[in-house]
Amino acid sequence: MSNTVTQKMAITIENLKFAYNKKNLQLSIPNWQLKTGERIFLYGDSGSGKSTLLNLLSGTLTPDQGHIKILTQPFSDLSERKRDKFRANHIGVVFQQFNLIPYLSVQKNIELAVYFSGRSLDHNQAFIEQILTRLKLPSSLSKQAASSLSIGQQQRVAIARALVNKPDILLVDEPTSALDANAKDAFMSILLEICEQLDTTLIFVSHDLSLQRYFDKSLNIHSISQALYLSC
Ligand SMILES: Nc1ncnc2c1ncn2[C@@H]1O[C@H](COP(=O)(O)OP(=O)(O)OP(=O)(O)O)[C@@H](O)[C@H]1O
């Protein structure tokens, strides 16, 4: 019997064009889809638009033309308020610089993500503790200001914050550049294990091609992006 079950799409991009300014087109993606549960390694030259694409997928930027559909939602066409709400509930983002609030404690940085999703903190407390343990962040660190942590610890707090709402999609931008080989290995194993457990679709951007081995699929951004003119 043939398998007639079609896998749902996590991301669908149609005729996307985006430019930071009128003169220079940064990204043009005619058509691209990612299935739910897929985990891909996204690479490409510096300046090729990888971070720009992640910002479009997280809704912090919106296309000049075309559409981004996330799960069943016409994500890029939603109002800013609805996009923010949808992001808080369905999309986790780990930025290159982590974007933690430096003077807030580890616990508060993570709780903020729960707050923005509108979920109850009481129901999420156990998961916060579980995820901090999985990421090897001892509870003694929870009350410390994020700025007092090592880079590796801050990175894991950023991951915890991105995963706390059990997102359908996780977007991770070059998070391992400050880590040594052993720390990278441990980080990648834990990240992929948690994504598998939560059935999270993952786009992982890095220049470090040695990390490709953790992924079933690698994608050069040039293979989906039709035209790219670097800004001067
Ligand atoms: N806020 C911005 N305003 C104007 N131009 C920008 C802005 N952010 C990025 N760019 C330009 O858009 C292009 C793509 O940048 P982007 O950061 O997406 O590339 P990248 O592939 O992630 O690069 P890297 O691998 O070096 O991080 C670059 O030419 C960059 O200078």
From TrEMBL:
<keyword id="KW-0813">Transport</keyword>
<dbReference type="InterPro" id="IPR027417">
    <property type="entry name" value="P-loop_NTPase"/>
</dbReference>
<dbReference type="GO" id="GO:0005524">
    <property type="term" value="F:ATP binding"/>
</dbReference>
<dbReference type="InterPro" id="IPR015854">
    <property type="entry name" value="ABC_transpr_LolD-like"/>
</dbReference>
<keyword id="KW-0547">Nucleotide-binding</keyword>
<dbReference type="InterPro" id="IPR003439">
    <property type="entry name" value="ABC_transporter-like_ATP-bd"/>
</dbReference>
<dbReference type="InterPro" id="IPR003593">
    <property type="entry name" value="AAA+_ATPase"/>
</dbReference>
<protein>
    <submittedName>
        <fullName>ABC transporter ATP-binding protein</fullName>
    </submittedName>
</protein>
<dbReference type="Pfam" id="PF00005">
    <property type="entry name" value="ABC_tran"/>
</dbReference>
<feature type="domain" description="ABC transporter">
    <location>
        <begin position="11"/>
        <end position="230"/>
    </location>
</feature>
<keyword id="KW-0067">ATP-binding</keyword>
<keyword id="KW-0614">Plasmid</keyword>
<dbReference type="InterPro" id="IPR017911">
    <property type="entry name" value="MacB-like_ATP-bd"/>
</dbReference>
